[in-house]
Amino acid sequence: MPAPDRIIALLSGPDQPGLVARVSGWVYARGGNILHADQHRDSDAEIFFQRVEWIPEGDHAEEMDNFRRYAEDELSMTGHVALSSERPKVAIMVSKIEHCFHDIILRFKSGELPGKLVAVISNHEDLRSATEGYGLPFYHISVTKDRKAQAEAEQLAVIHQHGAQLVLMARYMQVLSDDFLAQVGCPVINIHHSFLPAFAGGKPYHQAYRRGVKLIGATAHYATADLDEGPIIAQDVARVTHRHGPSELVRRGRDLEKLVFSQAIRWHLEHRILVYHNKTVVFD
After folding, report:
1. Please, what is the average pLDDT of the chain?
2. In this structure, is residue 18 part of a structural domain?
3. Of the listed 146, 178, 179, 228, which one is catalytic?
4. Residue 76 pLDDT exceeds 80
5. Cβ distance 216 to 180 under 8 Å?
6. What's the pLDDT score for residue 205?
7. Is the pTM of this model over 0.85?
8. Could you tell me if 203 and 228 lie in one domain?
9. Residue 2, in any domain of the structure
């Protein structure tokens, strides 16, 4: 028997006394059953964050609207409300490097990630046959310096045509412009093959090798107009030694990238992330 649909609410706003009691009291008074609740307070900024998940007694859509209004009007909180059964549409952007591409698609197809893949966009033809083998539409849009604006317009058209609610940069090796990010209309998650803020930009494993680091990492973050500076969602590291050359760092790093990328995507699709001040609160 399938689990009953749940309402998930993410709240953020100025800290004030009694917020936890008021939220739980509202749900209880309307016959709802809270299954999970977590909260965090940023003491420096005096901002309160909460994630609440419950089974409502009444109509789901009506309760979502009622709670959203309650959060904004009575609590002065910004509220994001969603249903646990939602399966957002997701588009993938990729170049030639394919380990994250395959890993993510298989996780969606197995049901591990709660979303629906709708399109793959690439600036190269290399992954067309693999994409079509997965039963997904493939769009090759060449990106050169002279036609970057036109290429991004074509990419945006594909994303909007499919109604994508999330875009994944699965080692898409092009910088997205400010205009693209302003017009895409949904979050964009990037996987960077480095433990940011160290070794931003190109060839981070080679940078790490030259620096002689003892840890390498991977970072999943929301893409913003500032290259590799967006809010960080997930990170992980692996120990390395002087014996590991650049090729070994790349190999070990790819395992990290797959795990970190999939974790960030899962947290986003499960409505566990709140962004503020170029940082994130992740209710994991």
Report:
1. 92
2. yes
3. 228
4. yes
5. no
6. 64
7. yes
8. yes
9. no
